[in-house]
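Hi R.,

Here's the chain you asked about this morning:
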Amino acid sequence: AGWKQIPSTSSMRLLTFQIGEQTELTVILLGGNGGGLRANLDRWRSQMGQGPLQDEEFAALGRIEVFGKQAPLLELRGKFSDAMTSRAFDDAAFLGVVAEEPEGAWFFKLTGPHAEAQAHRQEFLDFCASLRR
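And here is the predicted structure, written out as tokens:
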């Protein structure tokens, strides 16, 4: 309830939902492994002005179920900037999940102003957990 599918700003996006005033959830599928799990998580971190994951940070990532198996959950807070969409927030929340499947790598990303996006955190987690093959 309250999610609105909106036109995607990139041909790479399969789906984009507006959740709240400024929070978006995007779904992307890339063939192969999309450049690799670690590289994609680090790319997301760069969108939040953060450096690459250290080995201990990578090992400590939370995991959630997507498509019936465990996938890493990246949760960040900071300044968000997405060059592809020109969306930017000084105090943002970022939740991202990468699910590697035979057909490719699925990317699920929730971004928006921190307070608003955090209010939708559980909905994002429930959405990811609801996905079935």
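One quick note: The first strand starts at residue 3 and ends at 5.

Cheers,
M.
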